[in-house]
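dude i think i finally got it to work??
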Amino acid sequence: SITDITKNRKSHWTKIKRMDNRAFEIKLYPLYTMHYGDKGKCVMEIEDISPKIELEEKIMQAEKLSSLSLLSAGVSHEINNPLSSIMTNVQNLIEEEQNEVKKESLVWIEQETKRIARIVRDLLDFSNTASNGDERTEVNQCIRDIVKIIEYGIKNENRINIHLSLAEGIPAVSVSSGELKQILINLLQNSIQAIKGEGAVIISTEEDTITKKIRIIISDTGKGMSSETIPHIFDPFYTTKKNGEGTGLGLSIVYGIIIKYSGSVDVESEEGVGTIIKLSLPVKEG
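look at this
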């Protein structure tokens, strides 16, 4: 590329290169001077465009979520009616069926119908983005409540430790308790599922008095993610899990809730090392 510029085969050359979660735009231009004329000289300009790229990605993500929200609200209601009929009829058939082979097939249909119902509920939750502005939640207490539930579910495995490092005396956040719990459950479940053997999840909180935000940091020692995967994890229906293990809506719902309350989320991850997710949520005024 430098040769093309210095030999005037191109008037300019531009490339965007990503390094360590930063994005740089590299530009080359031919250099003409009174002394050298056009003899093999060029100018290189390197600009850190990370903030611009980050803003563009957030705008694109918000547009995706907005479009899906409008679609999912209508589609979910249309699916629920026939789904209820299918569920009722298949359960009646299970009770009446005497043939064990046929009954096994009916039970499988029932299980798959329930899975569809869960996806529909996720879609309805996803489309419900209303906020009345009166939400107030004590972050540390909410985290303790959710961790108790999560620990109860994993205690028999005895392979994952959850550690808390919560800043005392931090103010409440302007997020509903139910939605914050939904965020925490989704993120903690992802962290636990990413740990295949023994490992740990660390949850910490801190207050940023300058931005008036509370940060929740969840880090794990799981398998981590590739740099190609990270930009897509908040995309609706995007999942790296096996078929049937996830709908790909969990992190989209997390992102939608955080954006609704003017918060932010940042992700750092390295394959084979683990993942760190940082949430910033606004302090409840008054």
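Strands lie at 13-19, 22-30, 42-48, 160-166, 199-208, 213-220, 264-270, 274-282.
im so relieved honestly
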